[in-house]
TrEMBL record:
Keywords: Membrane, Transmembrane, Transmembrane helix
Originating species: Rhodococcoides yunnanense
Protein name: Molybdopterin-dependent oxidoreductase
Transmembrane segments: 20-46, 82-102, 123-143, 155-174
Presence of keyword Transferase: no
InterPro entries for this protein: Mopterin_OxRdtase_euk, OxRdtase_Mopterin-bd_dom, OxRdtase_Mopterin-bd_sf
Taxonomic placement: Bacteria, Bacillati, Actinomycetota, Actinomycetes, Mycobacteriales
Domain Oxidoreductase molybdopterin-binding, first and last residues per copy: 282-415
Length: 419
């Protein structure tokens, strides 16, 4: 038997032990990589090759950039929905995992050797990193721009701190987890009743209580409680992505609820007033400037409405996790390129009337600009856009992050060999 570390006498639950912790760890070993990968996918979708992902300068921690695809049109809706949805679902599991290992986190002496010191450092990165990511992530989907720092930058660097701790912890503890799950049959332990619940006699992990109190819940009951809590969180958040009748149940995502009236009754993250866009800027005097090389074309909204109209269903999918699918009508961007005399586009840039802001101008790849469903949208669901939804015109493209569906468009510029 190994030597047990000292711990506070309050940690006396008989269900604590390497098996219980390993079950929770095995679930997180599946979920956490998905949440992490989809988070980095979101960073890539913003277009780091165009210098508009945040943070921009990430040094050697920069992941490979690539042309963000336009198909399937629901791609960003899926990846960001998974990132936020699974991020919320895993909260009860993470809290249960932390509860199960508290004796190890505060054991004395805190450092026993160089190897133990390295393990403690990895735990600090793991626990500190995941708590920081959860707290900032939850606050970001609950409240509008409350941080005194860039959420995107902090979340990106926090993810790498977590990854360092996670990888080190998996390397150190994976054999222990596998051994615990193999030597203690799951179904056998799950059949043990509350009255018969006692610590594992051969648990040398330092987690099991040496002087346990009578059990108030069985291992089966504890795992059911954790799983039920995760399922409950899923029910309260899935409507943010699926929409429809479940939208009203998404009480954990207040920024994903509907706003507006009639055909314009769907989500708004930023109103015209908060963006500094006025009625005077979007009235009859408004003109769209289309640029390509030395060509400049000015078009009124009435002239745009005389062009060929295209209607398509496209989602708006936001970094906070909510998404909605609406029917958009407008002028294809490829038709605007033709008006400016360009038919081969390498990149394009759209600019908003919004005077300041991180996304008042956005660069897109040529394949995005020339996609047949990429629009300068004038209407939604058969009605003119409301001012808060981008009147007189906004950008709509397949599979883009919601912040790139730029509102209150002032100009569209195309760059290509013949521009």
């Amino acid at each position: 038997m190994g030597t047990r570390m000292q711990r506070l006498p309050t940690f006396r639950s008989p269900i604590r032990g390497v098996w219980f912790t390993s079950v929770l760890a095995s679930v997180l070993l599946i979920v956490l990589p998905i949440v992490t990968i989809t988070g980095f996918i979101s960073w890539a979708a913003y277009g780091p090759q165009f210098g508009q992902s945040m943070p921009g300068d990430v040094g050697w921690l920069r992941i490979p950039s690539f042309d963000w695809p336009t198909e399937p049109v629901w791609l960003y809706r899926l990846t960001q929905g998974l990132h936020v949805g699974l991020g919320l679902v895993m909260v009860p599991i993470v809290l249960a995992k932390l509860w199960s290992v508290i004796p190890k986190l505060i054991e004395t002496p805190p450092v026993r050797s160089v190897a133990h010191l390295l393990e403690r450092i990895s735990l600090l990165a793991l626990v500190g990193g995941i708590l920081f990511e959860i707290i900032t992530g939850v606050l970001n989907i609950q409240y509008d721009y409350i941080f005194g720092f860039s959420f995107y930058t902090a979340h990106y660097w926090g993810a790498w701190v977590f990854i360092a701790g996670f990888v080190a912890h998996v390397v150190l503890k994976f054999p222990t987890m596998v051994t615990a799950l193999r030597t203690r049959p799951f179904l056998e332990l799950m059949r043990i009743r509350v009255a018969d619940t006692v610590p594992d006699a051969d648990d040398e992990s330092g987690l099991a209580a040496t002087d346990p109190t009578p059990a108030t819940i069985s291992r089966r009951g504890a795992l059911t409680l954790v799983g039920g809590s995760a399922l409950f969180v899923a029910v309260l958040s899935v409507g943010q992505t699926t929409g429809g009748v479940l939208r009203s149940t998404a009480i954990l995502l207040p920024r994903g609820r509907s706003y507006g009236n009639g055909p314009n009754d769907f989500q708004i993250n930023r109103t015209a007033q908060s963006a500094g866009v006025t009625d005077a800027q979007t009235g009859d005097a408004w003109r769209l400037t289309v640029l390509a090389g030395g060509t400049e074309v000015m078009l009124s909204r009435a002239q745009l409405e005389q062009m060929d109209m295209h209607t398509v269903e496209l989602p708006i999918s936001c970094v906070e996790g909510w998404s909605t699918v609406q029917t958009w009508t407008g002028v294809r961007l490829r038709d605007l390129a033709a008006v400016a005399g360009i038919d081969a586009v390498d990149t394009g840039e759209v600019r908003s009337l919004e005077p300041v802001g991180s996304f008042n101008r956005v660069t897109f790849g040529g394949h995005q600009m020339m996609h047949p469903d990429s629009l300068l949208a004038l209407r939604v669901n058969g009605a003119d856009l409301s001012l808060d939804h981008g009147y007189p015109a906004r950008i709509m493209m397949p599979a883009i992050p919601g912040v790139h569906a730029t509102k209150w468009i002032e100009s569209v510029e195309f760059f290509g060999e013949n521009a």
